[in-house]
UniProtKB/TrEMBL annotation:
K(+) binds at residues 316, 318, 321. This is IMP dehydrogenase. It catalyses: IMP + NAD(+) + H2O = XMP + NADH + H(+). Residues 105-165, 169-227 form the CBS domain. InterPro entries: Aldolase_TIM, CBS_dom, CBS_dom_sf, IMP_DH, IMP_DH/GMP_Rdtase_CS, IMP_DH_GMPRt. NAD(+) binds at residues 263-265, 314-316.
Length: 502
């Protein structure tokens, strides 16, 4: 006979936290959000091989996680999982770009030739948003440096027709340059000594290597939580599937990937067990692989026992996801997280191994992150949240007078990522499990993540917790009625400022 859960499942919006005692010591500056990403023998006093400084990862999605977003998120202390629904070569190239990115050193692939026109410079400035363009002999990223042109070198509103870049640029002979291999602080010293805004770095043949900007050095200095490997390169993850992993994994490892995640809408399957076993056997236990998604104890135990390094929770709760509507499978994200967290603790008590869990999808308000952590998640995965930022890979458009960014599901026709949903066999998938959508544009990742983290940290202080494990121990959560939820927003008044708070 079928098994019935008689109680309805719940999602984050149906819960609130009840404050705990806040001591004088419990202030935001004292809170740490450091959290383990991969399993470790906690009982034996081991340290996890990989931890994050903020409990946020970006979704394995075409419209969310490319190399640009990965770099921006690693700067804040989190990890991006670069999407796997692209060729092995393209995905490995994205990973390689993150790993070769030197904080503060920018490789520009939008350069210009000296014989091109100012009109073309203006077009490039508009397209890239960069106000400084390197001029190379062939216009390529690693061409011979001929000069630098910036929007201060001519009047952008009065561009004389057919004017050549070479007549307006600062020519090579007048440029202050750095030699390839220069340290960031030496580059910064040159920038300050010579009162310039940027420093082109060149090799012994005067070919451009990178640019260092004054503002980027400042930004490097203001990222105390950035997540770096032992070689001072940014940490990055990648999504994989259960079909081509024997080819994809070695390519990603060669590119320098730090962590992998089997990306599937439903992970309680023989395919995932096989993939985990094969990858660990062939490439070694040091290759870390998360698995999922599951929504109950059984699913967690299955993946943990089969060697998953972390387990991802969530079916049907993603903002662009219509799996529940299409297939009738899924579970409220809060209930799923609470049950899987209990299973994680049970597994730890039995084996001494702590397998981190990630609550994936359905985060609408910043406080939902705090709720997910309080319910036992070690970190959360977000799609819609990151899709709204400058750094996400999608177009920024104006719709009905508002700036928006595009955001589409991996199960939508647009993504064509059937591997994530296909159960194998010959049938092939013919229906969508996701939609193509717009999300409100929200600016820079750095500003938004800083605000979100600040809210999480303040709430933790309200709960008397200085760390995520302490929050999980101390949190008091209450289910609330719709009336209580309504009472929580401004009510019975006419709000003057109608801007939306998320
Ligand atoms: P959200 O943050 O609510 O936008 O959810 C993102 C999550 O939704 C992803 O991490 C993934 O688990 C899920 N997803 C991605 N595509 C689709 C789909 O097309 N159904 N769902």
């Amino acid at each position: 006979m079928a098994f019935f859960y008689e109680e309805p499942s719940h999602t984050f919006g149906e819960y609130l936290l009840i404050p705990g005692y806040t001591s004088a010591d419990c202030i935001p500056e004292h809170v740490t959000l450091r959290t383990p990403v991969v399993s470790y023998n906690k009982k034996a006093g081991e340290e996890p091989a990989l931890s994050m400084n903020i409990p946020m990862v970006s979704a394995v999605m075409q419209s969310v996680s490319d190399d640009k977003l990965a770099i921006a998120l690693a700067k804040e202390g989190g990890i991006s999982f670069i999407y796997g629904s692209q060729t092995i070569e393209d995905q490995a190239a994205m990973v390689a770009r993150v790993k070769s990115y030197k904080a503060g050193f920018v490789t520009s692939d939008s350069n210009i030739r000296p014989d091109q026109t100012l009109e073309e410079v203006v077009e490039l400035i508009k397209k890239t948003g960069h106000s400084t363009i390197a001029v190379t002999d062939d216009g390529s990223a690693r061409g011979k440096l001929e000069g630098i042109i910036t929007e201060r070198d001519f009047r952008i509103d009065h561009v004389p027709a057919n004017s050549k870049v070479s007549d307006y640029m600062t020519p090579f002979k007048d440029l202050i340059t750095g030699k390839d291999g220069i340290s960031l602080s030496d580059a910064n010293d040159l920038i300050w000594t010579h009162k310039v805004n940027q420093l082109p770095v060149i090799d012994s043949n005067n070919h451009l290597v990178s640019l260092v900007f004054r503002k980027d050095f400042d930004s490097h200095e203001t990222h105390p939580l950035e997540l770096l490997d032992s070689n001072h390169r940014y940490i990055v993850g990648a999504g994989i599937n259960t079909r081509d992993y024997m080819k994809r994994v070695p390519a990603l490892l060669d590119a320098g990937v730090d962590i992998l995640c089997l990306d599937s809408s439903e992970g309680y399957s023989e395919w995932q067990a096989r993939a985990l076993k094969d990858i660990h056997e062939k490439f070694g236990k040091n290759v870390k692989v998360g698995a999922g998604n599951v929504v109950d104890r059984e699913g967690f135990m299955f993946l943990a026992e089969n060697g998953a390094d972390f387990v991802k929770i969530g079916i049907g709760g993603g903002s662009i996801c219509i799996t529940r509507e299409q297939k009738g499978i899924g579970r409220g994200q809060a209930t799923a997280t609470i049950e899987v967290a209990k299973a994680r603790d049970e597994y730890y008590a039995k084996t001494g191994i702590y397998v981190p869990i990630c609550s994936d999808g359905g985060i609408v308000h910043d406080y939902h992150i705090t709720l997910a952590l309080a319910m036992g998640a070690d970190f959360v995965m977000l799609g819609r949240y990151f899709a709204r930022f400058d750094e996400s890979p999608t177009n920024k458009l104006i719709i009905n007078g508002n700036y928006v960014k595009e955001y589409w599901g991996e199960g939508s026709n647009r993504a064509r990522n059937w591997q994530r949903y296909d159960l194998g066999g010959k049938s092939g998938l013919s229906f969508e499990e996701g939609v193509d959508s717009y999300v409100p544009y929200a600016g820079r990742l750095h500003d938004n993540v800083a605000m979100t983290v600040s809210k999480v940290v303040h709430t933790m202080c309200n709960c008397g917790a200085l760390s995520i494990p302490e929050l999980q121990q101390k949190a008091k959560l209450t289910l609330v009625s719709q009336v209580t939820i309504d009472e929580g927003s401004a009510h019975d008044v006419t709000v003057k400022n109608t801007s939306i708070h998320s």
